[in-house]
Specification:
It is a single chain. By secondary structure, the protein is α/β, with parallel strands linked by helices. The chain folds into two domains: 179 residues, Rossmann fold (3-Layer(aba) Sandwich), CATH 3.40.50; 144 residues, 3-Layer(aba) Sandwich (Rossmann fold), CATH 3.40.50. The protein is 37% helix and 19% strand. The protein is built from eleven helices and 15 strands. The strands form four sheets. A seven-stranded mixed sheet has the order 3-2-1-6-7-14-15, sandwiched between helices. The longest helix has 22 residues. It is elongated and about 70 Å long. The structure holds 6-O-phosphono-beta-D-fructofuranose. The site of 6-O-phosphono-beta-D-fructofuranose has 13 residues, from strand 12. It is found in: Cytoplasm. Its EC number is 2.7.1.11. Its main location: cytoplasm. It catalyses: beta-D-fructose 6-phosphate + ATP = beta-D-fructose 1,6-bisphosphate + ADP + H(+). Homodimer or homotetramer.
């Protein structure tokens, strides 16, 4: 069975469906099969910064029922980089050593960090500088972590966006309108491309392919000329205006966030055609709710593989999904290769083959 271990697990960055399923899988395998102790660290690295470190003992009993549950029972944050931590007086301070001290104070043998590329980069630096044995698990609805075909949360987000398109079809057809759905994804167009094809969109706009409003309007007109009185457009939040500017809005804490390109498109389309437009911004609905079966499989497989890596003493790696296999890759490699949509990707060709307008 090997030596007894005490491991920590934390979720970092934006939440998504499937995080709790990973926590459950780690506990089932580490406690159930290896008889280790598992400590859940609260609110990402913030829990290790606090004194005493904020943790909860995880057991098969208290993680029962987590398979389908959205969010993360541990809490998370996508703010508060420990290397430039925002202080109440408005300054920033490097508090990274407090996190390493928290890890060692808890006498952890290893840490499982579930995060996107930003979180994994921070966790890796903390691990390198603070002597932390780290295993990474990729999660993000954006699906932009290099070295893995799928990250946890992506499939559920695609399902939700697809369902939204399915619903929009009926109301679009009833009112003869152009319905625009704005989806998340940051700089990567994976959600829009996948949901757009699955949900029968007529126009898919993603940041990786530049577009012209005239091409979008031509597609809408062609459909009208054939008696198809409505059109469905899906657009990624990081698609720029035609002149190349990102559309953002100010949020709390003085931070600007992506959002608003759907409205921009609606105005442009109604200005350059006679179509009546309406906009739906799907927002955080894409991150919530019950995880899809595929995300549960991925989360369960990643959780089990991460525990196995620790049992065999392999660290500084991220578990990844490639060709329906779990593999391990150096975290450095995974975060160095950002995974945007490749304009030559099979799904791009599929979209073109279906006559979907990609704006170019
Ligand atoms: O990275 C995940 C993501 O949901 C992006 O798709 C989106 O741009 C961003 O996070 C939203 O962040 P927040 O939850 O801080 O509004």
């Amino acid at each position: 069975m090997g030596e007894h271990k005490r491991i920590g697990i934390l979720t970092s960055g934006g939440d998504c469906a499937g995080l709790n399923a990973v926590i459950r899988a780690v506990v089932h395998h580490a406690v159930g099969n290896y008889n280790w102790d598992v400590l859940g660290i609260r609110n990402a690295t913030l829990g290790l910064m606090q004194r005493p470190p904020q943790v909860m003992h995880l057991t098969p009993e208290n993680t029962d029922g987590l398979l389908t549950m959205g969010g993360t029972i541990l809490g998370t944050t996508n703010r508060g980089n420990p290397f430039a931590f925002p202080m109440p007086d408005g300054t920033e301070r490097d508090r990274s050593n407090e996190i390493a001290r928290g890890y060692h104070q808890l006498k952890l043998d290893a840490l499982i960090g579930i995060g996107g590329d930003g979180s994994l980069a921070i966790l890796r630096r903390l691990a390198q500088e603070g002597g932390i044995n780290l295993i990474g698990i990729p999660k993000t609805i954006d699906n932009d972590v290099g070295a893995t075909e799928c990250s946890i949360g992506f499939d559920t987000a695609v399902n939700i966006a697809t369902e939204a398109l399915d619903r929009l079809h009926f109301t679009a057809a009833s009112h003869s309108r152009v319905m625009i759905l704005e989806v998340m994804g940051r700089d990567a167009g994976h959600i829009a491309l996948n949901a757009g094809i699955a949900g029968g969109a007529h126009v898919i706009l993603i940041p990786e392919i530049s577009y012209k409003i005239a091409n979008v309007c031509r597609k809408i007109r062609q459909r009208q000329d054939r008696g198809q009185n409505f059109s469905i457009v899906i657009v990624s939040e990081a698609v720029c205006t035609e002149s190349g500017e990102l559309v953002t809005k100010m949020e709390q804490f003085g931070e600007s966030r992506l959002g608003g390109v759907g409205q921009y498109l609606a105005e442009q389309i109604s200005h350059h055609s006679d179509a009546e437009t309406r906009v739906t911004v799907l927002g955080h609905i894409q991150r919530g709710g019950i995880s899809s079966p595929l995300d549960r499989l991925l989360a369960s497989s990643f959780g089990v593989a991460a525990v196995d890596a620790i049992s065999e003493g392999r660290y500084d790696r991220m578990v990844a999904w490639q060709n329906r296999q779990i593999v391990e890759v150096p975290i450095a490699e995974a975060i160095a290769n950002y995974r945007a949509v490749n304009p030559q990707d099979t799904l791009v060709k599929t979209a073109r083959g279906l006559g979907i307008c990609l704006g170019d």
